[in-house]
Backbone:
């Protein structure tokens, strides 16, 4: 993991490629991405598929090109917590006809047409309903407005938390990146979480490292991933937040920082 962006480290990824490797799946965490051109070159060098996990990156771009359009396929989430939601489900983008047809079969019982009686292969019943589609399409009209609001919310947090001891706001390029979450790194996360809960403010810890999950457990040393997971916290990020709301949240954060041992600098992270 790259410390400054919480995304895949290309040099480390190349070292881990073996004859069994079939694809590279970069995760665009909170709209941030690794260098996609270099990642594409790496995939071509080893003849690997490149599948972008853009679940948290709708509207984010790199070099003027939208994330989710660099690889063989890009996957977006329309879950309830995303910038556009249909309640559940998602979107897959691809320029390859063979992949399009494979995805179509997978989602509809192994067939290309909903009227087909012959099923060419195995598939699932993962069809998107007309009601879900209508809900998502109606919200897409609001996407530009929501993108700008999310960027403004992040700006408020970044300005108000500047100089607060023991907490750092990671770098964010607001020209191209859409921050769906407001993420911070802090020395004493449990202390801050407890203080915020006491003030009636909900927070959320960063995800646990994938290699630590029982279903994916793998041996290996991932120090940056472990460090970021241990110190990362998401603050309230709803698109409905007002400047007054953000100011109140930041005041509570700084009050906690001022009254605890959190004030020592956060190591390894540049705000």
Residues:
């Amino acid at each position: 993991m790259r410390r400054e962006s919480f995304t895949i480290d290309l040099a480390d990824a190349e070292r881990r490629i073996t004859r069994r490797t079939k694809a590279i799946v970069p995760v665009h965490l909170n709209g941030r991405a690794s260098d996609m051109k270099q990642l594409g070159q790496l995939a071509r060098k080893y003849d690997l598929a490149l599948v972008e996990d853009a679940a948290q990156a709708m509207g984010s771009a790199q070099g003027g090109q939208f994330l989710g359009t660099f690889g063989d396929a890009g996957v977006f989430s329309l879950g309830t917590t995303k910038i556009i939601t249909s309640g559940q489900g998602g979107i897959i983008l691809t320029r390859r006809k063979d992949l399009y047809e494979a995805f179509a079969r997978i989602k509809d019982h192994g067939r290309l047409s909903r009227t087909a009686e012959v099923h060419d292969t195995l598939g699932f019943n993962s069809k998107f309903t007309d009601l879900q589609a209508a809900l998502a399409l109606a919200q897409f009209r609001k996407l530009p407005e929501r993108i700008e609001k999310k960027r403004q919310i992040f700006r408020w947090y970044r300005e108000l938390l500047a100089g607060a001891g023991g907490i750092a706001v990671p770098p964010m390029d607001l020209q191209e990146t859409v921050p769906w979450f407001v993420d911070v790194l802090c020395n004493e996360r449990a202390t801050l979480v407890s203080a915020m809960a006491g003030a009636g403010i909900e927070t959320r810890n960063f995800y646990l490292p994938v290699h630590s999950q029982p279903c994916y457990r793998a041996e290996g040393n991932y120090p940056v991933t472990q460090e970021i997971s241990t110190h990362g916290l998401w603050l309230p990020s709803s698109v409905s937040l007002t400047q007054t709301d953000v100011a109140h949240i930041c005041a509570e954060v700084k009050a906690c920082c001022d009254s605890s041992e959190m004030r020592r600098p956060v190591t390894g992270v540049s705000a």
